[in-house]
Specification:
CATH superfamily of one domain: Alpha/Beta hydrolase fold, catalytic domain
CATH class of one domain: Alpha Beta
Strand content: 15-25%
Shape: globular
CATH architecture of one domain: 3-Layer(aba) Sandwich
Strand order of the largest sheet: 3-4-6-8-7-9-10-11-12-13-14
Radius of gyration: 22 Å
């Protein structure tokens, strides 16, 4: 007999598969379209009978990209505010919970990815909830007259659903860890300082995503106007409502490109934007004042996050162009010289790839770790350094190791056919321990010792393994 669980809005039927019980495409809010487009997430009305939740639900409107590192099926449909639950047993009580927020640059991705299946976590006594949320302009565009940061509100609505319902799936609402990679890691870091998230989670894992430079109200407004101009409509709720979601998605990249090529260029993307309600202007000030979530965090990055991006530009790069890019990334002449000395003999694209990895991922991870630990919050860090054949330790590589799904579709193409299962065992075990106990199993990080787990062919805790990078990119932390 198929498993049935009772939620606050009605009963749902799941499936038993690969040793766990799965409920797929379960709505946590009503479809955010029609009269609810660009609005707050609205609770789902109650239903009669038993609702089948046996197949993945729709994903948010997004470009249907031919290839992404993580396989991310695009599923059409309006009910995109849905989640999946993987649990060991409906008869369980008080199990730890991990809520997974997918990446994709806030414009793509979704919870149906085979890399996000929670069956191995369920095997080890953890309930996994993977959520969808509005993407691109639907979720992040600052529209006059509409609620700001609608995607952030979707994350909160999903976490509120977990609080109200997860006990029905064997989970403990007082033992919830949020986790995400790339944009999902940024989402988790954003929730750390969001006042409305207080009490909704009790731990956070930020993989290859920390607190980025915030999108100011001015930049957000410029993006709104650029998108409206691209579409030929007024930059208002009514103007944008006249455009169907697919056409809105198609206009996003040209609008961003137009701003990046303006004089002076404008760095405005579909990101959480400062609104002082959900997203504070000074998140590090919030942390320093002790007003952030009182939770343990685990934060880290891979060793060569951006090498693939830089390699694609390799033929067009020379030392002069790389130096200009380094300057735009914020390095002065002396730090450019120090960076070049650190990478002496490397090809220009490798110098740039390391710089993008440092500035976008590693330095931000360490800044968050330093701030969190100085606020006397439990903090752990990791560096995933194992290099896959051909591609190296690229962005996203650590995800199948954390989920222990080296056998999932698409993993061999990224990690190679001989990816080390013992490394996956170690990484996954640490994630399970962190979600269960709030401690991954090694010495915590502090600004004096900077203990960091380095995941590699031989893994070990190392003191300050990114010191040379940190001294150049985060000189204020030295």
């Amino acid at each position: 007999m198929d498993p049935v669980a009772a939620t606050t809005t009605g009963r749902v039927r799941g499936t038993t598969d690969d040793g766990c019980v799965a409920f797929l495409g379960l709505p946590f809010a009503r479809a955010p379209f029609g009269t609810r487009r660009f609005a707050l997430p609205v609770p789902v009305p109650k239903w009669e009978g038993i609702r089948a939740t046996t197949t993945y639900g729709p994903t948010a409107p997004q470009p249907d990209r031919a290839f992404t590192i993580i396989p991310e099926p695009v599923i059409p449909g309006d009910d995109c505010l849905n989640l999946n639950v993987f649990t060991p047993d409906l008869g369980s009580v008080g199990l730890p919970v991990m809520v997974w927020i997918h990446g994709g640059g806030f414009t793509a991705g979704g919870n149906p990815s085979p890399w996000y299946r929670g069956h191995r976590f369920a095997r080890d006594g953890v309930v996994v909830v993977s959520i969808n949320y509005r993407l691109g302009a639907e979720g992040f565009l600052d529209i006059p007259g509409a609620p700001t940061n609608r995607a952030v509100r979707d994350w909160l609505a999903a976490l509120e659903w977990v609080q109200d319902n997860i006990a029905a799936f064997g989970g403990d609402p007082d033992q919830v860890t949020i986790a995400g990679q790339s944009a999902g890691g940024v989402a988790c870091a954003t929730l750390l300082t969001a006042p409305a998230a207080t009490g909704l989670f009790h731990g956070a894992i930020c993989m290859s995503g920390a607190i980025p430079p915030k999108l100011t109200a001015e930049a957000a407004g410029q993006l709104t106007r650029a998108l409206a101009e691209e579409l030929g409509v007024e930059a208002t709720v009514d103007g944008l409502l006249s455009v169907d979601p697919a056409r809105l998605v198609a206009a996003q990249e040209p609008a961003e490109k137009a701003l990046s090529q303006a004089t002076p260029p404008v760095d405005a993307r579909f990101f959480p934007s400062i609104d002082d309600e959900l997203v504070p202007a000074d998140p590090y000030g919030v942390i320093a004042r002790g007003r952030a979530a009182d939770v343990p965090i685990l934060v880290g990055a891979t060793g060569q996050e951006a090498d693939q991006i830089a390699a694609e530009q390799g033929a067009d790069l020379d030392d002069e162009r790389v130096d200009r890019r380094l300057a735009r990334l914020g390095l002065d002449a002396s730090r450019i010289a120090a960076w070049r000395e650190l990478h002496a003999g490397a090809k220009p694209w490798k110098v740039l790839g390391a710089a993008l990895t440092a500035s976008m991922f590693q330095a931000r991870a360490l800044r968050l770790a330093d701030a969190w630990s100085r606020a006397r919050q439990p903090t752990w860090t990791y560096a995933f350094q194992w290099e896959a054949p051909k591609l190296g330790a690229i962005h996203c590589l650590d995800v199948p190791f954390a989920f222990d799904v080296l056998d999932a579709p698409g993993v061999a193409e990224v990690a190679g056919k001989q990816a080390p299962q013992d490394l996956a065992d170690d990484v996954h075990r640490a994630w399970v321990r962190f979600v269960t106990h709030g401690d991954p199993g090694w010495a915590p990080y502090d600004a004096h010792h900077r203990h960091t787990m380095v995941w590699d062919s031989t893994s070990a805790v190392t003191a300050d393994p990114w010191r040379a990078m940190r001294e150049i990119w985060n000189p204020e932390q030295n």
